Every structure is written in C-alpha cells, then in structure tokens.
Amino acid sequence: MIKYPFSMAISDVLHHLKSDAKYGLTEEVASDRLAQFGNNQLPETRPKKWSRLLAEQFADPIIYILSAATVLAFLFQDWAEGSAIAVVILITVAIGFFMELQAVRSLESLRQMGQTMARVVRSGKVRGIRDSLLVPGDIILLDVGDLVTADARLLSQENLLVKESALTGESLNIEKKTVPVSQKTPLTSQTNMVFRGTVVTGGTGKAIVTATGMETQLGKIQQMALEATASLTPLEKKLKKLSKRLIVLTLILAMCIMIAGYVQGKELFLMVETALALAVATIPEGLPIVATIALARGMVRLSKKQVIIKSLNAVETLGATNIICTDKTGTLTEDQLRVHTLLYDDRSITGLNTKSMAEMPVDNKSYQEIIMACMLCNDVALADVHVHRDTIDQALIDFASSLGYDPKEAQKNNAELKQLPFNTDRKLMATVNRVHNAYQTYAKGAFESIVACCDTILQEDAAQDFNTREAWLAKVDALASQGLRTIAFATKVSEEEPEMDTILDNLTFLGVIGFIDPAREDVKHTIEVYKNAGIQVVMMTGDHIGTAKKIACDVGLLTQDGAHQYIAHGVDLAIEPTLDVKTTSTLLNTVVFARVDPEQKLKLIQFFQANNNVVAMIGDGINDVPALRKADIGIAMGIRGTEAAREAADMILKNDKFTAIELAIHQGRVIYHNIRQFVVYLLSSNLAEIVSVGIAALINLPSPLLPLQILFLNLITDIFPALALGLGKGDATLMRSPPRKPDEPI
To answer: Is 439 part of any domain?
Structure first.
C-alpha cells in the first residue's frame, strides 16, 4: 500500500510498488501479495437471519414481564393462566417476525449479486481476473463502461472520463490526467487517481493499483459506517421508558401485596397469585399486540406504494422526524445532464429542458447551426447501444430529439468525412461534414478553446468581426456561477475539403449551451409539504457550491434573495464536540452544505441529533453510507441507489419516487397518534383493575378478579376497542402540524 500516490511521479509509484508498467506483476508475486494484503473485498452486510429476527422480537420490557408471569404461573402449576399469557407473547412475536421477514425478502430481491471482472497485465499478458484477486502493484486497463474495482494511480490515459458521483457527489464526469498533484489535494481533485466504485464513461486508461479492500476510499467509508452505530427509534425510546415505569410500578405493587399478605398471615400461594393478578392488571397485555399490528399495517400500506421498511419501528420514526438531510446528486436531481440554457446572437433562452419546438426561434440561423452542431459534431447516435455514452453528447442528442429533430437522419444525410477527436489537451472536438454540396466544419468544446479558433461571430444571420469576446466570457462565467457546465460551438463552410491541420482555422463562433443535472419533477412540491409539516430540509452534497445553490433554489430550499446566508462550504466547516452558541445557531439554520465529504456528513447528522432533533437521511451513493447508518432513519433509492446505500438504510424507495417519503411521514404520524390514543385507553382501563385488586388485597378481602380473568378482560374487552383506535386513518391535518418534540412523553 502507498500513502500519497497522487503526489508522486509515475516512476516513483512503480518503484515503490515494485511493478512494471509494461509487464505488470508475475503470478508468483501477485499470489504472495494476495496472501499478504488479503482479497480485494469489502465485508458484506448480509440480511438478518430468521433466527436473529425472531430473537429480536423478544427484546421488549413488556415481553420480559409477561414471560416472567408465564414462568411463575407454570411454577405454581397454573397451566391455563401460563398458557394464556404465553399465547399473548407468541401472537405479538409472530406478527413482528413475519412482517420484518417479508421486508428482508423484498430487500434481497434488490441485491445485485455476482462478481466484477478486471482486465490486468500479468507477466506482460492481458488477462481477465475476478476483481477480488487484484493486489497492490497490479497494472489494470480501463475502458468505457468499466466499473473501477480498486484505487489506482493513472500511468497513461486517452481522454479518460470517470463518473465519481456515487463516491464524491460530483455530478459531472471528471477529466483524468497523469500529472502529480499536491499532498493536500482533496479527494475530489485527485485527477490522476481512479477509485473503487466509480465508472469509466469515456476514453481509456492504464493504472497501477495502490490500495485494495478496506484500504480503498470506499473501504474507509464502509469502516466509518460500521463504527456509526444506529440509535433506538423515538418510538422504541418512548415505549421502553413507559415499560420501565410500568415494571417499577408492578414491582412496587407486588412488594406491597407481599408485605400486606405476610402481615395478614396469608399463604405464599395466595400472595403470589394476588401479586401475579396485579402484575397482569398493571401491564397492558394488549399494548405489544396492538402496537405491532398498527406498525405492521403501516408497513403493508407503504409496501403497496413501493416502499420497503426493514423494521417495524422505523415506520413511526419518520413521523417524529423534524430534520431531513438529503444528498443532491441522484436524490434531488436526476443524475443525468440536460440542456438548460442556450446563448446565441446576443439572445438567451433558459429552461430548455421544459420547452417545446413551438417556443424555439426556428428561423434564426445561429440557432439552426447550433442544433446541427449538436447532432453532427457528436458520436452518440452511431454508438453501440450497449456502450456507456458520454453524458454531454447524450444530452445534446436528447435536446435535438426533444425539439423534433432526428439525429440519425441528420448524420445520414450529412455524412461525416473527418473527425478531430476530443482530448483533454485541446478540450474540443471537430467534424467535417458534407452539407448541401459544401464542406462544413462543426466544432464544440471549452469556451476558451473554441474562441481561440474563431475570428468571426454569427450575428443577425451573417458572420461579423468577433469583437465581443469579453462580453461572452462574462456570460459564460455567469452560467458557471449558477452551477451550469458550458460548451461552446463554432462552424465554417468551405468549397474544398479542409485538411486535418486546417480544420480549426478561421471558425465562426455560434454560441454556448449550458448544461445542468436538473431537479427531479416531484421534489419541489414534496419539499413544500415538508415545510408545511414543520420539517427542515437540509442538502448535504459533495458537489460545487454553485451547483448546490442552483438546485437548492430550483427545489425551493432557498430563495434567490439572500441565498448565500444559508450555505456552508465544506472547507470552512468545523464541527467540534463543543461549539459556541453562535456557531451552533448558524449550523442549525444552514440548509445547504456544499463540498462536504462522508465524514462531514456523518458529523452533521451527529450534530443535529445532539441538539435534540430526530434526523432522517436520504441518499443513494457510497459517500452517503455512514450518514445513512447513523441517522434515526436512513432512506435509500432502490433503482439508482448503490448496493452499499441500500444495505445501510432502514427504508428503501423501490421506484425512487421522492413523494413516497411524504406518504411515509404521514403514515408515521398517523401511527404515533393512534398508538398514543390506545395507550391512554389501555392504561385507563387497567387502572380500574389495579385499584379493585389492590384495595381488596390491602384490606384482606378475597381478590375480585383472578389473573386469568384479568387477562381475559385485557385481551378481549381491551384489545378490540384499542385496535379500532390503533388502525384508524388518522387526522387529515397531521401534515399541517409541526412534528412532536423528541422528548415528549407518550
């Protein structure tokens, strides 16, 4: 293993790892290193076994008391009474067990099993091996569509692009290079490294493995998640507190009865029977049954809405949530680039992802040429459907198609004769196409690269001197400050086919397109519902601050005016165990945290929890796993979410619909409201039994009710009214009220 491979020269990395860029490792050396460093695997969190699920159903103080009562009844050979209490326990345990077992099976259906293969150079030959057999020093080859299976330092690359959003939160593809960077360079800027769990979206590369297994960045995040132990849910805490109080009350009453019986000279059997009667009267036997049924019904309702809940108590937790922390990429956004803004001919059109052909300036020549450039200076329409496509090119094709154009037909009718491929040095690409019996060059790329090739600009349907470069640069900078990625376009028409070395000469500037990973359609309305319900929504993203601000405004987290007041940058973020009042207040009122890493996300969750909040975390990436695990309830996406995120979460949205969380919150509030109603009913009903049995015992009268009679009353006369209260649909105004306080007693 090597500590700072990104800051070292390639030759130094090869020397340190005793490897060769051309021949790689020998099989013998690779075998020795596999024995030394272990398999390139992360520990899998397998679903709970049925035996563990069953055992967990007994971990309830009320079940403990009922079990003790059962044992006592059997010891005194009161078989009917002991059997009756045992039946109550079994019913409660069975309902909880089968509901959670169903959730485990649903989750198992989402698991993506199977191993990934890696292409590696061993003894000078390229071969495919299981990714688990990779070792430090292995030379791996990367191509479009490959899943990177270990952390590695790039040795060479050709236009290599890697999608790192699952690891870093960065929504755009990252252009990779081979030059060393500073030791202080953050993970998101280590452009000469590729990391486990990321995907190659363009180009090719060769790299040397520097870390495997738990030593990879993904492994370190998983280790952080394993250390972030989950806490009890709010309902578990409240019922546990209530149960403890009932246990204390039961013991006090039993002691009083035993003392009174001893003073009165009663037989031990009668004293135990009376104490048992009081215990049965004190404990609302219907509580675990009704609570379990209420939670199970909520679980079933949500499962019909494509929501998997892993444990019963998690259903209610969302109802108590007052802060929802959410990742941006793939959660609030589509995780797919779309054309958003078009600048041309001193004009600007925004919101292009929502506009139709009828709204576009189809008669404008600059607009027409840009659309042609989108289709012709592009490889996507000709690419194999199984190849992982460049996101920018795909967005341009989708844009043209949405306006009614046919990219394949355009490429067919305007044959490509030459292509100058994109590379990271010139940062542009160009094609020469046969258009209307002439030779037309189209170029697209970074604004600075395109402008450097242009001496004219197309304005008012004619080429004019390009003397507005500074004004255009200001426009492009303005788009970048809003979190948009920009691509510039240029063209020229020639009577003769240009040579490769003159393709970029004397181009005419056309305009600029701005791209964004747009907010999902259902998010803005849902966030408004959260606000009306008194829930604060906090964005935590590894992406750039401009992009985070833009999306936050689009989904209604921020308003355009004064938005900077509510944004924090990860570089400036210091979350210590003890913070002053001002810093604490600022953090509690910040709704966007940009450029934060997995550890900072975890610390933010802990900070909110320490300040008496019930916190939910929504995420889909590897970088969200520690926070998902630590939150009071973690929520992951079922389709676009990573396997690691789904394993760490308590709730999974099978269809990725953000609106499902709103339904779950409402269901959680309904359940708690219902549980509270039937708890009050059960305890008030049991109070009458306690008083009648207790007073009779203290004044030396025969017990008016035997334990079995009390149990019969509690199970028959109490449970059915309690079920009616516990299974109600709830008040329609619940989502217009603030969440209850976490320390509020049940």
So the answer is: yes
